[in-house]
Amino acid sequence: MHRPLVITEDQELLDDLLRVAAAAGVEIDVAHAAPHARPYWRRAPLVVVGVDAADALAATGPPPRTGVLLVTHAPEDPEVWRRCVAVGAQAVLELPAAERRLVDEFAVASEPLVRAGETICVVGGRGGAGASVLAASLALWGSRRGLRSLLVDADPLGGGIDVVLGQEQATGARWPDIVEREGRVSFAALQEALPTFGELTVLSWHRGESPPIPPEAMRAVLGAAHRGCDLIVVDLPRHIGPAAAEALSRAASTLLLVHADVRGVLAASQVLIELRRHTSSLAAVVRAGAMRSDVISTSLGIPCAGVLPDQRGLTEALNRGDAPGIGPRTPLGRFCADFLNELEPR
């Protein structure tokens, strides 16, 4: 993977650009003189030219290319637009005002692969419905079949989805460590910071006081995952705040887990009112019980994605610290296989 290229002889400007690249979690190549940039010019995914080096670079006659930006500390410089045209830059970024955009540009350029991952949100129709177990099972199933997957715990009061996986002692960042993240971020940097097990990366919570997730942080995380993952599964709280709304707006499908009894359906219908404010891609997953799935689907006005019978030994396994069993003969395994096999071609 080639790195972004910076061309400047201005040490103060270079210091700022190195700081911005660090904020984006990327490494860069630096050409301190315009002729030194020639070997990198075509292959760099992004070229950032200091205004001080623009004339010297133009004199070398670099071939036209996309992904060139001109950066300056002097917004009043009348020559800046002439230099922009001379080096074939697509935009002029004035620092420090444009630092956030430059972080975004560095992060996008450093992505090793664009995967266009699908986001699935899971929410319980009532407390204790098993939404966290279903979310964890979907992400596990995907990762074990080679899909690069991110499991996001968006419920600060849920006890931590890393516990569902039996990985609460795993080292790595949790939500409180990254809630101030905004703008684009490289998924490679995110994956390196978070607990990762094979193809599965997990974003959960520390124990103790839990700050709310800013929607900007959720946007940054899901944006990075969309570019770097095949599958993103978000475990949502039943009360939809700004961060949960951000996730819902990005979801290809939102699964509402419904207990098949009168109280379960009534509770789910209340949650559904909130969900419909943010997404129309909704389906019910029915926990087997006294009511038929077709009656529940008709009552709620959303399709049924499947029925989940009780899984023998699941509670005991979770209490031992084991991940949910998703073998091909288990109810969870069969549901995940059917649902994700249908989703994958899309």
TrEMBL record:
GO biological process: negative regulation of cell division
GO CC entries: cytoplasmic side of plasma membrane; cytosol
Coiled coil: none
Domain of life from the UniProt record: Bacteria
Pfam family, one: Rv3660c_N
Residue ranges of every copy of the Rv3660c-like CheY-like N-terminal domain listed in the record: 7-112
Molecular functions (GO terms): ATP binding; ATP hydrolysis activity
Domain CobQ/CobB/MinD/ParA nucleotide binding: 120-322
NCBIfam families: CpaE_hom_Actino (TIGR03815)
PANTHER family with a match to the protein in the record: SEPTUM SITE DETERMINING PROTEIN, SEPTUM SITE-DETERMINING PROTEIN MIND HOMOLOG, CHLOROPLASTIC-RELATED
Annotated protein name in UniProt: Chromosome partitioning protein
Originating organism: Sphaerisporangium album
